[in-house]
Design brief:
The complex is a heterodimer of chains A (about 160) and B (about 325). Chain A contains seven helices and no strands. Chain A starts with a helix and ends in an 8-residue tail after the last helix. The longest helix of chain A has about 30 residues, at about 125-155. Helices cover about 75% and strands about 0% of the residues of chain A. Chain A has about 160 residues and is mostly helical. Chain B has helices at about 5-10, 10-30, 35-55, 60-65, 75-100, 110-145, 160-175, 180-210, 215-220, 225-245, 245-250, 250-270, 275-280, 290-315. With about 325 residues, chain B is mainly alpha-helical. In chain B, helix 1 (about 5-10) packs antiparallel against helix 3, helix 2 (about 10-30) runs antiparallel to helix 6 and helix 12 runs antiparallel to helix 14 (about 290-315). Chain B is built from 14 helices and no strands. Chain B starts with a helix and ends in a 7-residue tail after the last helix. The chains are: A mainly alpha (about 160), B mainly alpha (about 325).
Chain lengths: ~160, ~325
């Protein structure tokens, strides 16, 4: 495969070398915690729409969206740094693009859910379920896909760095 | 204090503890003593957590003995097999016990006692199996370093040998069967992490005083989901360990992580299984949790976050 020379330019930059150096594992740790925040908060909303746990008031969960967005931006920055550290490794891997598409799908599902079930106050449990069930299940599937494709990045790459 | 020392220090507890727990449990069932039954459940849950470091320090103990005279690799493998089966049974007993401790959501008393008798039966059977397997694990372990008790021509335990085969089969499955098994187990380990951190996170945050509109009672119904994440991660974690024991046991980050999990799990078991929890478990919307609960929530949240970070550093332990 012809690897764009641009990737080498990134890899030779000071920031890229810094990422590959000591902070790499720290950034990876932050990326794991950001995942727990983003996916964990999304999961709690989706599960509640599906009726788990019973008896938990629904409206206060709207505040979990600030956790979702905090998680999203933590992932954006830490993931962006990891990408700058290893541009060739990620960008020559089809799995990386699958992960990006699934992230967009997951976020879109969460934003759509917010519109459908959180904007009108005092919806009954049955209403919430009726309006949000499909999106809730989809979002859980998308996030499981994001985690899986993300984890697979460590096992599916063809180049660690710019070849040659 | 080193790992072989820890192995010797802790290994008698799950064995003797299981026998004591089983005795208490049988008495509790015979006399219909609810408190004693709950106490046996707490004991079983604590023993299951205690058994984890015992198993994980076994390879380190074997490494020390390997250099000594009269070392027999086959005796050690037999012991490893028995220990694995005993740990599995102990884990099941622990899980069933936690189910028994779980405050029932069932509305009627009849339903609840019905569910409780099923849990009692499951705990009784698995504790009996655990006691038997623990005895085999203890015997085969004793044989390794006490030649004087090994009878001439004595056949090694068949159950232990079966266990040794299971260990080898698991190692083969995780490492050699397909290059995709390890990544898929990693994936499950991350899914389990999300379940665990998600549930610990929301309950801790609420207990600390944020999200006060959420009543704690219904929120606690998420705990089985968090426990599911914990069980997934113990099982997948052991698959990694059985796959590459010599990479992990000497890995400083791994040792620290197991120690931290041990503390974090013990804190939660002690908290949820005692009256500390009963007092505030049903706190409604807007109600403040007591100081003890806040301390436990804060400590748990920090500990589990630290555990994720240490875990992420384990690959680096290779070069330490």
């Amino acid at each position: 495969m012809n690897v764009p020379h641009f990737f080498l330019t990134i890899e030779d930059s000071g920031l890229s070398m810094w990422v590959r150096d000591n902070p790499f594992w720290a950034i990876l740790s932050i990326h794991a915690l950001g995942m727990a925040l983003l996916v964990g908060a999304s999961m709690l909303i989706a599960l509640r729409i599906l009726g788990i746990p019973q008896g938990l008031p629904f409206a206060p969960l709207k505040r979990l969206y600030s956790f979702i967005w905090a998680g999203f931006w933590i992932q954006f920055v830490s993931g962006g740094l990891l990408l700058i550290g290893y541009p060739t490794k990620s960008l020559t891997n089809l799995d990386f693009y699958i992960k990006m598409v699934l992230i967009v799908a997951g976020m879109v599902a969460m934003v759509m859910l917010k519109k459908r079930v959180f904007t009108e106050p005092a919806l009954s449990d049955t209403d919430i379920r009726l309006r949000g069930k499909a999106l809730a299940i989809l979002s859980l599937l998308f996030w499981a896909g994001v985690v899986t494709s993300g984890r697979m990045l460590a096992y599916t790459y063809t180049h660690v760095s710019y070849p040659g | 204090m080193n790992l072989p020392h820890i192995h010797l220090l802790l290994n008698h507890w799950p064995i003797i503890g299981t026998f004591i727990g089983l005795g208490l449990f049988v008495i509790a069932l015979a006399t219909r003593n609810r408190d004693l039954r709950q106490a046996s459940y707490v004991l079983f849950a604590a023993l299951a957590i205690l058994a984890l470091p015992v198993y994980l320090s076994g390879n380190a103990a074997a490494e020390v003995l390997r250099k000594q005279q009269g070392w027999s690799a086959s005796l050690a493998e037999t012991h490893e097999g028995a220990a694995m089966l005993a740990l599995l049974a102990m884990g099941l007993t622990g899980i069933f016990s936690v189910c028994g401790l779980w405050p029932s959501a069932k509305s009627s008393k009849v339903d609840e006692s019905h569910a409780q008798s099923w849990v009692s039966l499951a705990v009784l059977l698995s504790a009996l199996a655990t006691a038997g397997l623990m005895a085999v694990a203890g015997n085969t372990g004793g044989n390794i370093s006490h030649e004087e008790i090994v009878k001439e021509g004595e056949a090694p335990s068949e159950i232990a040998q079966l266990g040794a085969k299971v260990v080898l089969a698991t190692r083969y499955f995780v490492i050699d069967y397909s290059r995709w098994v390890w990544p898929m187990v990693e994936d499950l380990h991350f899914i389990g992490l999300i379940l665990l951190i998600g549930v610990v996170g929301i309950i801790s945050i609420r207990t600390l005083g944020f999200f006060k509109q959420l009543p704690l009672g219904p929120l606690q119904r998420l705990i089985p989901l968090g426990l599911l994440g914990f069980v997934i991660n113990v099982v997948t974690g052991f698959m990694f360990f059985i796959g590459m024991p010599f990479f992990y046991y000497a890995n400083w980050y791994f040792q620290l992580k197991i120690f931290a999990i041990f503390i974090a799990a013990a804190v939660l078991v002690l908290f949820y299984c005692t009256s500390m929890f009963q007092k505030f478990g049903n706190a409604g919307a807007g109600q403040d949790a007591p100081m003890v609960a806040k301390l436990v929530a804060g400590a748990s949240l920090v500990l589990w976050i630290v555990i994720v970070i240490i875990g992420r550093y384990i690959p680096l332990g290779e070069s330490v």
